[in-house]
Amino acid sequence: MTDHPRLPLAGVIGSPIAHSRSPALHGYWLRRYGIKGHYIPMDIAQADLPEALRLLPRMGFVGLNVTIPHKETILGLADIVTDRAALIGAANTLIFRKDGRIHADNTDGAGFIANLRQNAPQWNPAAGPAVVFGAGGAARAVVAALIEVGAPEIRIANRTRPRAEVFRSDFGAKVMVHDWIQAGNMLEGAATVVNTTSLGMTGKPEFRVPLDAMEPGALATDLVYTPLKTQFLIEAEAAGATVVDGLGMLLHQAAPGFERWFGHRPEVDEATRQAVLSA
Ligand code: NAP
């Protein structure tokens, strides 16, 4: 350890990592708030994780974002895991504490809710059931968050049904599992509708569940944000839903980490969106 002051460093670890928008986002906030620090993307193999976590704090890192494929593995390497990260079974934000311990949290669910609150202030999650298409890693954060904000029922369907069944055992009796083939039937009376599958993402197959049964006035949101306006959102809007794109979730999930590492709560606003979109 050196005893002279050092610039705070943070970054994102994953593999591959070149596509990550996090460096553009945190880099923008660092410049905007005049903070002398750096945020660095690092491609780290699974086998190298323990050594990386031992060395990075000694090199001046104050924390990390964690992305695919390390979000689950990292829980076993952290010293303190928040309850929500444990429930979700994955962490996306690490804090390297001064006492040497590694604190792991998951901010995806909070980012998901903050995006909806900001862009659809009239949304009331308690007004009716929530529909969740997909049961992958991101869906776990979404379902945990929807239950926390008072959704009375979670209707979930996944192409691979057993993955959705696990949600019922992990998140409780509010979760109702439906067949993927009839997923459109879940929409009746729903207040909130979320696509958590990767369908509709650039380069992936299109989302094809019929949305005719969407309640006009429901809130629909897509976790996919490339393209920004997915076919799912276009069809949901045509069916009368209020729609919110997924980019805001990415921006909001990043804010708590930035604040902990660099000491400034960053603004999520149009300028932030543009900085990430134009990077
Ligand atoms: P994941 O764990 O790999 O889950 C992928 C999900 O998509 C599963 O439910 C999978 O179903 C479903 N799926 C994939 N191909 C399908 C197909 N051809 N037909 C039907 N279902 C299909 O991925 P994830 O981490 O949950 O991420 C899901 C999406 O959310 C990705 O596009 C990711 O970029 C996005 N995301 C966005 C944010 C944000 O901040 N906006 C945050 C996290 C994730 P099976 O179980 O049957 O394979």
Automatic annotation (TrEMBL):
GO MF annotations in UniProt: NADP binding; shikimate 3-dehydrogenase (NADP+) activity
Gene3D superfamilies named in the record: Leucine Dehydrogenase, chain A, domain 1 (3.40.50.10860), NAD(P)-binding Rossmann-like Domain (3.40.50.720)
Organism: Gemmobacter caeni
GO cellular component terms, A-Z: cytosol
Similarity comment: Belongs to the shikimate dehydrogenase family.
Uppermost EC category: oxidoreductase
Coiled coil: none
Name this protein carries in UniProt: Shikimate dehydrogenase (NADP(+))
Designated gene of the protein: aroE
EC number(s) stated in the UniProt entry for this protein: 1.1.1.25
